[in-house]
Amino acid sequence: MTAGAMIGAVISGRMTDFIGRRLTLWILDIFYIVGWLAIIFAEGAWLLDLGRLSLGIGFGLTCYVGPAYLAEIIPKDIRGLLMSISQSMTGYGASLTFVIGSFVTWRSLAIIGCIPSLLLLLALFFIPESPRWLDYIENQRLQQNSDDNVLNLFRRKYLHIVIVGVGLMVVQASGGLYGFMFYMSEIFDSAGISSTLGFILVAVLQASATGQCLGCLLTGLSYFLQELDWWKEASPILALIGVLVYMGSYAFGMGGIPWIVVSEIFPINVKGSAGTLCNLVSSFCSWVVSYTFNYSFSWSPAGTFFIYAGICGFGVVFIAKLVPETKGRTLEEIHASLTRIMQ
């Protein structure tokens, strides 16, 4: 899936700029439907892999075009609120899937997963195209935009926002999310906790956005304490609390806000290339985490989560020092202020 997301990331910016936000939403939804259908009717591993790849491509496109479209159509006074609600649906959807998946077969779960994609297909008939994209296309009809190139992003006037966007993606994706998501059963089982109970608690408990680093620390500490005889009984509870804090805080914090910021800080003349770069970095880091987690967890469960905690801790400092506040400002005001910083 993360490999498919990298493919979707590579084509997301150019596709969205060339054919528009609305048509890109149509295409990504087709990838979702094809992916779920491939999994539903799979009789062997190759069709399951094909389905996951297709879902990944759709997800890679979604990560860029979803926040970009919303940022361009929502008024500034409610932009943060509505985009946060939209992004939080990812966390809620994953939590709901954990609960349902504890009681049904994977094929039944795939059928259920196809339902939102079909609903989106119907909803796309009723949404408008982004007015900012329409204006951009009209202004660029007779001229080539020389800035819309990945290499041009590293010019001085864009360097600060590129560092902010790419840095947020590195922190978000490298902080262990896909380790928790893809291997949550193994984490619960190794800590002596019922996976079904753990999934249900993850679904119903939401923590504050500042708890992501704490979640990794608590989970790592629980495995470290398993080596101490007098702490062995408490360590499963600590591991459960750590996972709950991490997943809950991620849904409200790093799960959606970095994508919101990235959709806001880049001017529309470079948004396609910048979105592709940030999306690709996010997908690549997600792939690294999902691929290496099993090996690092076998090496040292405690060490694995301490590493993730360190990355999340770095993210706190990075955000405090470099990430601008965008609340209550139009996209044009945000772009003008950030461009002046580098001039």
From TrEMBL:
**Record's keyword terms, sorted:** Membrane, Sugar transport, Transmembrane, Transmembrane helix, Transport
| Localization (cell) | Membrane
Query: According to its record, what are the GO cellular component terms?
Result: membrane
Q: Where does the Major facilitator superfamily (MFS) profile domain lie?
A: 1-327
Q: How does it sit in the membrane?
A: Multi-pass membrane protein
Cite a single GO MF annotation.
Answer: transmembrane transporter activity
> What is the similarity comment for this entry?
Belongs to the major facilitator superfamily. Sugar transporter (TC 2.A.1.1) family.
Which chain regions cross the lipid bilayer? 23-47, 53-74, 94-127, 158-184, 196-225, 237-262, 305-323
Q: What is the native source organism of this protein?
A: Carya illinoinensis
- What lineage does the source organism belong to? Eukaryota, Viridiplantae, Streptophyta, Embryophyta, Tracheophyta
**Protein name, UniProt field:** Major facilitator superfamily (MFS) profile domain-containing protein
> Where does it primarily localize?
membrane
